[in-house]
Design brief:
Blueprint (H helix, E strand, L loop, with lengths): L2 E4 L1 E4 L2 E8 L17 H24 L7 H14 L2 H14 L3 H17 L4 H25 L11 H7 L4 E5 L4 H4 L7 E6 L7 H9 L3 E3 L4 H4 L5 E5 L4 E4 L3 H22 L15 E6 L5 H6 L5 E5 L14 H14 L5 E4 L14 H8 L9 H7 L1 H14 L5 E5 L5 H21 L6 E7 L2 H5 L1 H5 L4 E4 L1 H9 L17 H16 L3 E4 L10 H7 L3 E4 L1 H12 L3 H5 L2 H5 L4 H8 L7
Parallel strand pairs: 3-4, 4-5, 5-6, 9-10, 9-16, 10-11, 11-12, 12-13, 13-14, 14-15
Antiparallel strand pairs: 1-8, 2-6, 3-7, 7-8
Helix pairs in contact: 1-2, 1-3, 1-5, 2-5, 3-4, 4-5, 12-15, 15-16
Bound molecules: phosphoenolpyruvate (PEP) and magnesium ion.
Length: 592
């Protein structure tokens, strides 16, 4: 039966494919396709893992001390029985044979099916057996991972080429939640879209989805409960609708829309190397937001004239607490600088905390674990200043990279005047340490993210201490409106059009211009065509966004006349409904 689920559209386009349900805790399990000729070997791996675990459980049983409670031996027997149960092993083999999933993926796919069946049981005793089957599968996954070390695709998701080679259906990931650190695996993913139960429009999980340019819907609440393994799913990343098991006619309609949006994309791509100049001759700088040095080439390819935001924290994630050292960071920053071939690279110092913990944690785990709101806690520059050695190490690495090209340092979440002094001292010390060590570095500008209302309100004073500022609208909205950007329950109140937000953005841009300091916007607002004319009217000439958004924004810039809205700016800013006011002033036609 066809059903529809509604969520928040976070990454545009339409994806159509088979659902792959993955528990949030198992997203880092390897997902790749095995070629037809490798299917038998893969089943062999499964068999070996089962035998290995059976051996382990037998040994455990054997070693139980005589005084151990009888329940323990009984539990091990239950696990041994489940291990040999046809519902687990035979059905897992089918995923390998028919879908060509690797053993780990097949096993976790079957676990999802069984877990669902247990959840639906009336008998509470039987329902609780779900935990046993989960434990057995976890043991097998560990066994598979241990044996796979060193051979086969070891990353969570293997190259797309394998999927294409196997000629499989497109796949849609369905999960309760995906941690930002896990989203990084999707860079080389087999998935062509995803849907999650939780998350907000500017949560970092959504931001990474946009940077990957794959259709995505988050905050779809019941999605992972309503969608079943292998269901056909359509993700409409423009409207937030997820259609499960669509009728033929609906499927055809969406296939048509998918083709249309691909054509539109190809058309926009032709603007790649056209300079972004408005109708009234104003040159506009379109920069890229990147997460890893490897994203540099795609930024250039998209026509970016530099990197306006390199979110360096992604280098610090997925490492089990082992942070990257100075040399490792230096190499990463240098690679990004070299990839940009002389264009400027703005490296933001580490912004961990809030919804980007160092360890891989989903939103729900975070909320559950920390209770307090981590967005108001020790994050971003607060964390860096609390770890001065680590902060200086990062500054030295960035300074060293500046010997290879134009580099700017951007500091996240500055809110206090005292922080500014500490940042400057840390930078001076980092330079001194490099001088003492005889290491080369170039001239580097220092900038602040304006993303806390306190900084926007004191912008004139902040500007005296920084070479440039970059407005982080994602957090500025969160902190101005007191709305957790990652919480789908309040997502409807997260309003970039709120007059208070627009006023802070406008005043920051204009104050920077008065002080003759460079200013850009690097939050999601910069990549949203609905705001392009308004930001231009406020005087903004530098926008930083995901490479995938550059062409669409460029098209908007090419069609814009900055004078058109500028004369009505006061009217827009004093309106109770600025979105509607802008739509009216632009004749409606330019807004989507
Ligand atoms: C912002 O807050 O707008 C921003 C660009 O930074 P991040 O999304 O990484 O918090
Ligand atoms: Mg921010």
């Amino acid at each position: 039966m066809s059903i529809q689920v509604f969520g928040l559209p976070v990454s545009r386009g339409v994806a159509i494919g088979r659902a792959v349900l993955v528990a949030s805790s198992r997203i880092d399990v390897a997902h790749y396709f095995v070629p037809v000729e490798g299917v038998e070997d893969e089943i062999g791996r499964l068999r070996e893992a089962r035998d290995g675990v059976a051996h382990e459980l037998q040994a455990l049983k054997h070693e139980l001390p005589a005084e151990a409670p009888a329940e323990l031996a009984a539990l091990l027997d239950v696990h041994l029985m489940l291990l040999h149960d046809e519902a687990l092993i035979s059905a897992t083999k089918v995923w390998i044979q028919e879908r060509h999933y690797n053993a780990e993926w097949a096993l976790s796919a079957q676990l999802e099916v069984l877990a669902r069946q247990f959840d639906e049981m009336d008998d509470p005793y039987l329902r609780e057996r779900k935990a046993d089957i989960e434990q057995v599968v976890e043991r097998m996954l560990r066994e598979l991972a241990a044996k796979a070390r060193g051979g086969g695709p070891s990353t969570a998701v293997a190259a797309k080429a394998m999927r294409d080679g196997a000629g499989e259906d497109a796949l849609i990931l369905v999960a309760n939640d995906v941690a930002p650190a896990d989203m990084m695996h999707f860079k080389r993913s087999v998935f062509t879209g995803f849907v999650t139960d939780v998350g907000g429009r500017t949560s970092h999980t959504a931001i990474v989805a946009r940077s990957l340019d794959i259709p995505a819907v988050v905050g779809a609440r019941e999605a992972s409960r309503l969608i079943r393994q292998d269901d056909w799913v359509i993700i409409d990343g423009d409207s937030g609708v997820v259609v499960v098991n669509p009728s033929r006619i609906v499927l055809e309609e969406y296939r048509f829309r998918q083709q249309q949006s691909e054509l539109e994309r190809a058309r926009l791509n032709r603007l790649r190397h056209t300079p972004a100049v408005t109708l009234d001759g104003e040159a506009v700088e379109l920069l890229a937001n990147i997460e890893l040095p490897g994203d540099g080439p795609s930024a250039l390819e998209a026509g970016a004239v530099g990197v306006g935001l390199f979110r360096s924290e992604f280098l610090f994630m997925n490492r089990n607490g082992d942070l990257p050292g100075e040399d490792e960071q230096y190499e990463a920053y240098r690679d990004a600088v070299l990839a940009l071939q002389g264009l400027p690279v703005t490296i933001r110092t580490v912004d961990v905390g809030a919804d980007k913990p160092l360890e891989r944690m989903t939103q729900q785990e975070l909320r559950h674990e920390h209770g307090l709101n981590p967005a108001l806690g020790l994050r971003a520059i607060r964390w860096s200043l609390a770890e001065p050695g680590m902060f200086r190490q990062q500054l030295r690495a960035i300074l060293r990279a500046s010997a290879h090209g134009k580099v700017r340092i951007l500091v996240p979440m500055v809110a206090q005047m005292a922080e500014i002094r500490l940042i400057q001292e840390a930078l001076a010390r980092a330079r001194q340490q490099l001088d003492d060590a005889g290491r080369a570095y170039g001239p580097v500008e220092l900038g602040a993210m304006i993303e806390v209302p306190a900084a926007a309100l004191l912008i004139d004073r902040f500007l005296q201490h920084f070479d440039f500022v970059s407005i982080g609208t994602n957090d500025l909205i969160q902190y101005t409106l007191a709305i957790d950007r990652a919480d789908e329950a309040v997502a409807h109140l997260y309003d970039p059009w709120h007059p208070a937000v627009l006023r802070l953005v406008c005043e920051t841009i204009q104050a920077a211009q008065r002080a003759r300091r460079a200013v850009s916007v690097c939050g999601e607002m910069a990549g949203d065509t609905a705001f392009t004319e308004l930001l231009l009217a406020m005087g903004l000439r530098s926008f930083s966004m995901h490479p995938a958004r550059i062409a669409a924004i460029k098209q908007r810039v090419l069609r814009a006349d900055t004078r058109r809205l500028a004369v009505h700016l006061d009217e827009v800013l004093s309106s109770d409904d600025p979105a509607q006011c802008v739509a009216r002033l632009l004749g409606g036609g330019l807004l989507q």
